[in-house]
């Protein structure tokens, strides 16, 4: 994958019939769903069948399993993701016929042109924050549209056109595609070095965020605790943009205080624009999720809603798919799935779980030891593993038991000398295991757990499939 060439969006009513190459992907299927709800004729193809394809077909899309030139049929616009190769027969057909070809982000940008768009960007926390903003606006009766990189637990959907004038979308910086969005309001959660297979370094990432600032029409809401995001705030102010900040930092416009773990929920206080303290509660653990919640309240306030009333909707957020998602419980062990695939994300989730376990133990049996954390981690990308191996090992040291799978290559070819052992060899305790075979890894996780423990499957690859498998192994072990 590489940085995409920005393409300006086209108004929805000018798209004509739209064909999606790779319509079954999380991002592509959400855009297709919203276009169908808005009356646009949609077709699409994907390499394999899925529930998402079936759902789109029920909504009226003409879907195909497998790629072929004939699938394009009488489309006027072709939408492609950055994962589609130039040799794809549908892309070749569209080029030969001179059809309009849009990157996925330009199709997403089209949805913002006639709505009050809210775009959530940042290295970490995009999906959760986008989901929280959506849930708060639903709580407030705003009937927002949304396109999220994961499914909302509350609706079971990753996208919906909505009936209100606001649409909330996740803005992907990984390939620069967020530079095709023109939101009215934007969130920048944090800015760190990542996706260095696309970017030359942190400076290039900052340059792209500076360009994103120029595309925001009204307000930027920025997590000021993060040095990279603080730098974006400075750029935005220099360019005359309205900036609102959130964080534990005293000068934050939306200041967070009194964070306290309550088992796997979290209580905190929010002071919005120097007003009276607002008592808040979220149903997920971790300071990082408290900050995501503060950003969501700030967005609601910026859109004209009372922040105290908005905050009352926070407990209604119960999660998004793959973002600390409960997969099941057996033998007194809970299994969660986490999309964490960067050291900062692993650290945040593992720290949050340890705090939650300590809080739960303190309330139920103060003298009893807290449950332990068992991490099943699958590194994502050879380049990311090579660059961040030491940082991954430091993060995984926070887990009591660590099981590591081989690297999930995704879009990359193997690199000589780069393997999961770069990580396991640096974890600062001996309870770390590397398993090439997935079944052996599941067996190891079941073997080392005991009642009261939490298991986290972690990574952006197919490790997500193993949560239910682990639950089944625990059931069998308990029986």
From TrEMBL:
Domain Mur ligase C-terminal stretches: 322-461
Domain Mur ligase N-terminal catalytic: 18-114
Pathway assigned in UniProt: Cell wall biogenesis; peptidoglycan biosynthesis
Entry's transmembrane regions: none
Domain Mur ligase central per the UniProt entry, residue ranges: 120-300
One GO molecular-function entry: ATP binding
Domain of life: Bacteria
Gene3D superfamilies, per database record: Mur ligase, C-terminal domain (3.90.190.20), Mur-like, catalytic domain (3.40.1190.10), NAD(P)-binding Rossmann-like Domain (3.40.50.720)
Gene Ontology cellular-component terms listed: cytoplasm
Record family assignment: Belongs to the MurCDEF family.
Protein name: UDP-N-acetylmuramate--L-alanine ligase
Organism: Nocardiopsis ansamitocini
């Amino acid at each position: 994958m590489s940085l995409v060439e920005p393409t300006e969006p086209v108004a929805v009513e000018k798209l004509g019939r739209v064909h999606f190459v790779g319509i079954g992907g999380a991002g592509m299927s959400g855009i297709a769903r919203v276009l169908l709800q808005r009356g646009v004729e949609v077709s699409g193809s994907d390499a394999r069948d899925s529930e998402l394809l079936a759902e789109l077909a029920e909504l009226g899309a003409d879907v195909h399993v497998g790629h072929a030139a004939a699938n394009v049929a009488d489309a006027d616009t072709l939408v492609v993701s950055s994962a589609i190769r130039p040799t794809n027969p549908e892309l070749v057909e569209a080029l030969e016929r001179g059809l309009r070809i849009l990157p996925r982000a330009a199709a997403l940008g089209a949805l913002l042109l006639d709505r009050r768009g809210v775009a959530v960007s940042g290295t970490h926390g995009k999906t959760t924050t986008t989901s929280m903003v959506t849930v708060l606006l639903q709580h407030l009766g705003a009937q927002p549209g949304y396109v999220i990189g994961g499914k909302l637990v509350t609706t079971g959907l990753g996208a919906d056109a909505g009936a209100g004038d606001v649409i909330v979308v996740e803005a992907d910086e990984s390939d620069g595609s967020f530079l095709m969005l023109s939101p009215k309001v934007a969130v920048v959660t944090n800015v760190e070095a990542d996706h260095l297979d696309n970017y030359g370094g942190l400076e290039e990432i900052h340059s792209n965020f500076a360009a994103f600032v120029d595309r925001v029409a009204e307000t930027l809401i920025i997590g000021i605790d993060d040095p990279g995001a603080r730098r974006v705030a400075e750029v935005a102010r220099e360019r005359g943009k309205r900036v609102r900040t959130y964080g534990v930092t005293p000068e934050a416009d939306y200041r967070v205080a009194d964070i306290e773990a309550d088992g796997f929920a979290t209580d905190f206080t929010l002071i919005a624009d120097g007003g009276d303290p607002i008592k808040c509660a979220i149903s997920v653990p971790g300071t990082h999720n408290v900050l995501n919640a503060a950003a969501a309240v700030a967005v609601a306030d910026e859109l004209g809603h009372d922040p105290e009333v908005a905050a009352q909707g926070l407990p209604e957020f119960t999660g998004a798919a793959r973002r600390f998602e409960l997969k099941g419980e057996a033998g007194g062990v809970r299994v969660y799935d986490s999309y964490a695939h960067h050291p900062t994300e692993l650290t945040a989730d593992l720290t949050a779980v340890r705090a939650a376990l300590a809080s739960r133990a303190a309330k139920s049996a103060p003298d009893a030891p807290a449950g332990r954390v068992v991490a099943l981690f699958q590194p994502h990308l050879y380049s990311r593993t090579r660059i961040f191996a030491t940082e991954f090992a430091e993060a995984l040291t926070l887990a009591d038991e660590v099981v590591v799978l081989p690297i999930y290559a995704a879009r990359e070819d193997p690199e000589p000398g780069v393997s999961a052992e770069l990580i396991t060899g640096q974890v600062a305790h001996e309870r770390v295991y590397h398993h090439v075979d997935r079944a052996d890894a599941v067996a190891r996780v079941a073997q080392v757990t005991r009642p009261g423990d939490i298991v986290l499957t972690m990574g952006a690859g197919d490790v997500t499939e193993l949560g239910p498998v682990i639950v089944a192994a625990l059931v069998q072990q308990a029986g």
